[in-house]
Amino acid sequence: MSVHRLRLLALAAALACVPSAHGEELGLKLQRIQIGPPRASAGPVPTFLSADRIEGITGRESVAEGAAEIRKGNTAIYADWMKYTDATEDVEARGRVRIERDGDVVTGPSLRYRTSDATGTFDQPEFTLAPRRRLDVQAVSGRGRAQSAVFDGEDRYRFVDGFFTTCKPGNEDWRLQVSEMDIDFTRDLGTARNPTVYFKGVPILKAPYLDFSLNNQRKSGILPPAFGSSEKNGLEAAVPYYFNLAPNRDLTLTPRFMSKRGAQLGGDFRFLEPSFFGQLKAEVLPHDQILGQTRSAESLVTTYAQPGKVAGLNLNRVSDDNYFRDLSSRINIAAQTTLPRDAFMTFAGGWWNGGSWNITGRLQGFQVLQDAAHSIPVPYSRAPQLLLNALKQDLGAGLDFGITGEVVDFHHPTSVTGVRSTAYPSLSLPILTAGSFLVPKLGVHSTYYTLDPNGNAPSAAPGAQQLPAISGTLTRTLPILSVDGGLVYERQQTWRGQNMTQTLEPRAYYLYVPYRDQNQIPLFDTAAADFNYAQIFSENSFAGGDRISDANQLTLAVTSRLLFAATGQEAVRATVGQRYYFKPQQVTLYPSTPPSGNRISDWIGSLSGRVTRNWTVESGLQYNGRDNRAERFTIGTRYQPEPLKTLNLSYRFLRDQIDQVDVSGQWSLGRGWYGIGRLNYSIPDRRMVEGLAGFEYNGGCWIGRLVLQRYIVTSGSTQSAGATTESSGSPTRAIFLQLELNGLSRIGSNPFEALKRNIPGYARVNQAVPVSRPYDFDD
Q1: Is the pLDDT of residue 215 over 80?
Q2: pLDDT higher than threshold 60 for residue 133
Q3: What is the CA radius of gyration of the chain?
Q4: How far, in Å, CA of 509 to CA of 439, rounded?
Q5: CB of 757 within 8 A of CB of 750?
Q6: In a domain, 419, yes or no
Q7: Which helix (H) or strand (E) holds 155?
Q8: How many CA atoms does the CB half-sphere of 153 hold within 13 Å?
Q9: How far apart are CA 124 and CA 106, in angstroms?
Q10: Rounded to an integer, what distance in angstroms lies between the CA atom of residue 607 and that of residue 616?
């Protein structure tokens, strides 16, 4: 029987009624209405009879002996002896009987079958049910044996006192034993009575009754349970129940029991409509046995989209600061400290002979999950915020006109609050050719503040001098002039047996912004921008609207790429660049921070691409030529010669902050065994930040997985003298043990999210696909 035709996921729990579903892998679908007449009948189908010897009365009854064969439509019956009655279209067959229907094959000693309505009975059958071909599932066959089989029509079977497995003949590592099982492919529905799952001859799961979906279709029922353990919560067990409410709506309820904390209930509702979609999640732990209190979490994420209109909600809340750190076994969730509460709506359209515009309104706030050992800064809320962007190309004389604007009301429980209004109109003159570009641009950036000190001074860095509390109004107007230009040179060459095109792309970017004293302006949403290749070609060294850096500077960079001449696909890219200051920058984030006084910036360089058939490299460097030292360095490489063989090695260095080595991989060990693991090691701390190790075994018709994970959730970061160091957290350990019976169910805790996040290039051992390579080198 097909893997996807028998998703008996309900066998994971010994309950009275255990229907099946696989909601975690199935997406919602919009309800589609079929329009048009039904298919016309194919008309009478002739019957063909052949054998070594045939006798009888023409038009009434025929008896065939020796290699007897009868065919009608998609059905063929073979036997040593066969009798056919013309009036009723009944077939009686004995001796090495074999019936084939739509790829299904049933064999046994004797058969009674009516070809007119595809009904009959089969004694002691052995069967192989072929998968109904679908585009969205992987086709896998299954087989079995029973005391008797009943044919209830086209694509309908009933097996009595038998078993089913997807293992190959001669292998019964797992099997499903039933007293009775109905298979109805016309409704994609199956039912079983008194089912028991045997693994290696040992009964592991049993249920008195179940129904299940065929062909991997969503169906209400119990999903595979998850079991695990952790130091904070003890032994854990979760049994999700899936409600297939409609093709475009579903709900999953998940009771979860933790031996140290008690019972928790979670819900996940998904919906998909023609103009909006989203997801609503909620969890509640009525009585935490450790803390003695009720704990809960809620999340709503939804998006609405129509031509010219887009809107969205992202609302999140938890009952206490340690909710994720205590109750989540996933590091990306456990490490969350700021939960957004955001609502927005955007309108867009065209204007003035081909121009475009969009306006966005937003309300945004946050819930900050504080840590007892470290205070986390509370960001400002925006209530409300209005944004405008407009562009008109070919205004006249080759000019382009653009304008951005913003009005935002900032709120904070302790710091200065106020309204910031910004307008930035600009004119540019793009001059483009096949091998060059030049874009001069002139704009005026105007900002207006209405401030309320709220009884406190504006935010500042820990240990830095606080800005004076200000009320009233402030203004700032700055002209911004830039000229961006570049060239593209090409030459043909051969590299590693391939015809290549090498480019040389120098680029120069000049920026002038006069100095304005901005020390009295508060910091609502502004910080120093990360120094990288994209930033050195930007107009501002700060991210946010409260600081605009003065500038009289020139950025020079060059990029070289290797492109395959036949396809134009990029093989390797190398870039290097540096900024030169004709006048040192004076604007700083805080009044107490002295200007750097540098005349040149650090060097920025990168190298990336697939350097051989099996090796890819990504690297980046920020080098301080003044002090002859690296400020930042990252390099990562992947070796992937074939599916299920992946090795990743990376190194990350950020002065006074990060110095880590990261190794991960998935590798075939032979004889069905695969090793998986990851080690993220902090060199200065001499400790493992995150580790994962485990094994997978592919038994052909089943997969076993054992994964051990250990990670440290840092509670935040502290700043000292401009450096940032992560504060230590207690380690969290998790164990994932899963048994996947192909075509039946996955039993145990699900490790896939942890494996995909920790091991780039990870693939499931029974769903591996060829490694995607847009090109190959000749080795």
Answers
A1: no
A2: no
A3: 34
A4: 9
A5: no
A6: no
A7: none
A8: 5
A9: 10
A10: 10
DSSP letters spanning 664-707? EEEEEEETTEEEEEEEEEETTTTEEEEEEEEEEEE-SSEEEEEE
Which among 574, 601, 628 is the end of a domain? 601
Say if 35 falls within a structural domain.
no
Percent of residues in the chain assigned helix, strand, coil, to nearest 5: 5, 60, 40
253 close to 240: Cβ distance less than 8 angstroms: yes
Q: How far apart are CA 663 and CA 175, in angstroms?
A: 39
Q: Which structural domain, as residue segments, surrounds residue 250?
A: 224-411
pLDDT of res. 226: 75
Distances (CA, A) of 540 to 228, 310, 404, 537: 49, 29, 15, 9
Do β-strands 381-396 and 745-748 pair in parallel, antiparallel, or remain unpaired? unpaired
In contact, 391 and 506? CB cutoff 8 Å: no
Own/partner long-range contacts of 535-538 (Cβ < 8 Å, ≥24 apart): 536/509, 536/577, 536/578, 536/579, 536/601, 536/604, 537/484, 537/507, 537/509
Which pairing describes strands 309-318 and 498-513: parallel, antiparallel, or unpaired? Answer: unpaired
Q: What three-state secondary structure class fits 299?
A: strand
Tally the residues of the chain. 779
Q: What is the spatial distance between Cα 600 and Cα 627, in angstroms, rounded to a whole number?
A: 12
The Cα 732–Cα 749 span in angstroms is: 16
Distance CA 4, CA 2 (A): 5
Question: Does the residue 3 lie in any domain?
Answer: no
Q: What's the whole-number mean pLDDT along residues 6-10?
A: 32
d(CA 642, CA 625): 41
Please check whether residues 68 and 123 belong to one and the same domain. Answer: yes
Residue 103 gets the label, from left (phi > 0), alpha (psi -120 to 50) or beta, of left
Overall pTM > 0.90: no
Dihedral of CA 223/227/233/235: which sign? positive
Model confidence over 425-458: pLDDT tens digits?
Answer: 999 999 999 999 999 999 999 999 999 876 444 4
Q: What number of H helices and E strands is found in the chain? A: 3, 50
33 confidence band (pLDDT: 50, 70, 90): very low
Given 221, 243, 265, the domain boundary residue is 221
Q: How far is CA 412 from the centre of its chain?
A: 34
Q: 648 and 663 in contact (C-beta within 8 Å)? A: yes
Phi and psi torsions of 480, nearest 5°: -130, 120
> 367 and 242 in one domain?
yes
